Amino acid sequence: MHANRDNHLAHASGGVLVTGASGALGRLVLQQWAACESPPAIAVLVRSRARWLELSSRLRIPSDVTILDGDVTQPGLGLTKASRAWVAQSTSAVVHLAADTTFSRPLDLARSVNRDGTRHLLDVIADCPHVTRLAHVSTAFVAGRRTGRIVEAAEGASTADIGWVNAYEQSKTEAEALVRAARRDVVILRSSTVACDDASGVVTQRNVIHRALRLFHDGFAAMIPGGAGSTLDVVTADYVADGIARIALRDAVDGETVHLCAGAGAIPLSELLDESYARWSQDINWRRRGIAAPSLGDLATWELFASAIEETGHARLRQVTQALSFFLPQLGLPKEFVTARATELLGAPAPQVREYWGRMIDHLEATSWRGVAGLSEVAA
Amino acid sequence: MPQPHESVSVRATSHVFPATSRTVSELGDDNALESDHAMLERFGFGSVHVATDETPYDLARSAACNLIWEEQLDPTSIGLLIYGGTPSSMAFASHNNAAEGAAGLCTANRFRFPATRLQYELGLENAAVLALDQMACATLFGAIRVARAMMVAEGIDRALCVASEFYPLLAGREAIYNCTSDAACAVLLERGGARNRIAGAATITKGYYWDAAAMREEVVASYFPTAVHAIRRTLESANWCASDVDWVLPHNVSERSWDILLRLAGLPRARLWSENVARHGHTLAGDNFINLRDALATGALRPGDRALLFSYGYGAHWSGLALEV
Q: What are phi and psi of A178, to 5 degrees?
């Protein structure tokens, strides 16, 4: 889908500074913009120029992208004085994708990138007189331990009283608060967890969902939190990237929050398990093992189970449970992300998860779970 | 599936523990535990029974004799004897002679069978004799399954199931975070009995987990979801739902694991009869049936109640039984 400058690139009259361009989503956004009839002028902030050059060459991202050496964890983004002056004069919009998306990071490390990195960016663009748009890419799971309908607004984020499941969620919530307090020209794009590249089910970037699935597949999951109404909200990378490319620079979204989520198309947990185990059962060698799908229990039961495992002191079981504890509790906190504004802006909702879940399971199996840690790696 | 007029009941049970007891703390001092004894105490264990001079056969015979005497039975009225537990020559060896007993399995002593000796010494002259092995803590469930089917198929009125099992001498006293006791348990089944009617039963066996020592993580992970399935199947076979269960008579594994399993199975914690976990620990021979007797004796379990029995045995077997008390 090609963006239209009249609307989707309204704030790209000057240059567009992109952080996190080398990430899984950032590269797709740049590819989409590059395919426009009148591509915006792009500058990317990168920690490793060599890595960026290799990546951009491989992905055929146009070579006229301006490369700025820097690091969001550093004050002033680690830019030289000259680079900072260039940014001040040449930038009309900023798309902030840089993030540490590892769920298991300690809070101080997660904050270093996600909260403090955002603060450093805000400091820099405060000196950029031509900037009329900051697109802040966040996570839908700033909702933390909230349950029920999660609105596309600041109120959808959790608070310290309600809490979060992991430090990633908390640090991204803190970053959202910073950008809201600092600017009015902000649009916040909250992505759900990316499950696979697109509806083909191919998985390029493995994450905690794939690790959890592998532990299920290998028979190391006794239970997961969740009940009859629990769902898993995941999205494809191409949907999120398309959403960012088409909304980040468009006009008339100042101050808005948009959910790039499956929403009503999330997959019920019971269906997810049935589909996954049915796919795996097609392998007779797997089926003969008689591995049972994990039992569903409420969050209190999960916590009881996790604490019992912790108490036994069994190193491998503890490490598996700890690894899952950064993600699984979300399943016991049923929520539905409202996606009305995203659907309105993009013209269609995200693909329903059930449309591609089975193909994703098949892809992981067909690639022998390459890149997805099993018990020995998780517990290493 | 037996028809109503062919129903089989648990008429009575009896059990025997060895004379010596050890506290969990003492077991810790003896290096007989893999885990910290304080953790096992938090998991509900207090003391266990440890055979020293007794043999598995001694306990089996005592349990069966007590049952026959208590029920004032004519031994010749018993048409089937099923023995499960410590096999052959090992059944006649005390812990002090366990190695000698084990060595006997490699000689003609392998054919010295506790099951047939029981038949002779108890005067069960009309009883067909079978023995079961390799079901560990689910042995009595397997014996009852076989006995029930044979009673209905062959018109046998009474069957005696006896299990006697010692935890292996060199294996310490802990089995996956559970403290173990030595014991024997006898169960008398009767066709058409009025009390403790077997309303349903289910067993799930997963041979993939046959090597429990090498597959500890998998066994722990598979235990809960498969136990939930076995419990549901048992309830379905009895046409019960979870809310019909008045008491859960457990195998005496850690109370912590029961807390988790009950929640997953949708059974209230208050229905777990767990008084024997602390004082007896986990026997391989028949926790559930020891608990049946004791729960009846205390008055907690009363006629008309519906009791669910569940056990897991190495191998791996998940077994449930539904009893109308």
A: -65, -45
